[in-house]
Amino acid sequence: MALAETNIDKIAFLPLNPSTEPILHIRCGSDIYEDLREAGIPGSFLEVSDPVCQGPLDPSLSEEVLRRQRADFIAATYHEIGDAAAVLAKLEAEDAGLTQLGRFGKIVLWFEHDLYDQAILIRLLALLRTAPQFHDRLFLINIGAVPGVDRFVGLGQLSPQQLANLWGQEKPVSPAQFDEADRLWRAYTTGDPLHLQEVLQKTDGALPFLVPAMKRHLQELPWRDTGLGLTEQLALKALAEGAETPGRVFALIMENLEPLPYLGDAMFWPLLAGLATAPQPAVTAFSDWRAPLSLTDFGRELLGGRACWTDHNPLDRWIGGLHLKGNHPPYLWDPGAGQAVTNT
To answer: Where is the DUF1835 domain (predicted)?
Structure first.
């Protein structure tokens, strides 16, 4: 998408507090919007939240075609998210907002350390790298911990006062950060996990949370021993540890099991549902977040490392730019080696 000015009637800018300087805050969700207002932080707010950590990312497609494909994916896949037309309108408004950055003298990106945020961040910075006229206006708040918060999951869990404490700590986006984001975004969307690993090994830490976030991304590849991605394995583990409903499975993963929480409930739902609706299910059927849920015999075999998901169930999902289909994925995650490997 080129950052040319676009004539549109409505942009998805939300007002925060009056300011003599035109300030824009960009966030990959609306979770901190009300708290920023309550904290008295000045400016306007733009949500840019296409969840590029999941779903199709074919780099050969035009921006318009890919946007429509992603809207179809989000509407069809995410739990109670809305129809494709509404999702497409939202994605179009987000991208249109990015064409209007010339209205603002200061642009602040608010992002945390997890995969969801970091994937959106590198997409944004790779795009903005092509618009040097905005570079001296761009600032970044990019954090992985907050004093007094034992298990920091994200900015959305912070109080207005804690967000106010972050305001003023934003740093100018550096040329090295633009370059690193561009390299990683290109590698992320190529569909070659081994190339992504090579690029990660050469990063200089300009964006310090990228390496662990991208490693977590690679762990969603089918694992060599089970054929399941890490989130699916954590779901089975949560059931084995006593969770009895989909809601409790999600809560246990987020509270204790997930090493780098990044999924919202709407994004987790299709992963769990896929374990129940496959030809050889790993969990029992369920209808809502409070429905009873348990492991099947096959699920217990998977959890014990005595069975492989892809021996019985075909794959059909995207890992970055890689579309996994069928029973023989071209790449796997090798837990012993701690890296992605070719499936030979």
So the answer is: 24-133
Interacting residues of 292 by C-beta distance below 8 A, sequence separation 6+: 244, 245, 284, 286
Instruction: Find the mean pLDDT for residues 205-227.
Output: 97
Within-domain flag for 284: yes
Q: Evaluate the CA torsion angle 153, 215, 73, 269 in order and state its sign.
A: negative
Residues 6+ apart with CB under 8 A from 171: 139, 140, 141
Structural element, H or E, at residue 246: helix 246-252
Boundaries of domain holding 334: 230-342
Alpha-carbon distance values, 290 to 109, 185, 245, 250, 287 (Å): 36, 38, 5, 11, 8
Q: Which tens digits make up the pLDDT trace of 104-117? A: 999 999 999 999 99
The total number of structural domains in the chain stands at: 2
- How far apart CA 46 and CA 36 sit, in angstroms, is 12
* Same domain, yes or no: 26 and 147: yes
In a domain, 21, yes or no: yes
Q: Which of 138, 157, 188 is at the close of a domain?
A: 188
Question: Which of 170, 188, 206 is the C-terminal boundary of a domain?
Answer: 188
CA atoms of 117 and 210, how far apart (whole Å) = 10
Average pLDDT over residues 9-36: 90
Query: 339 has which bridge partners?
Result: 334
Tokens of 113: 């350390």
Q: What is the CATH number of the domain that holds 121?
A: 3.40.50
Same domain, 25 and 171: yes
- Say how many C-beta atoms besides its own lie within 10 A of residue 131's C-beta: 16
N-terminal to C-terminal alpha carbon distance within the chain: 37
- Percent residues over pLDDT 90 in the chain: 93
Residue 329 lies in a domain: yes
Q: What is the rounded distance in angstroms from the CA atom of residue 276 to the CA atom of residue 232?
A: 11
| Same domain for 255 and 161 | no
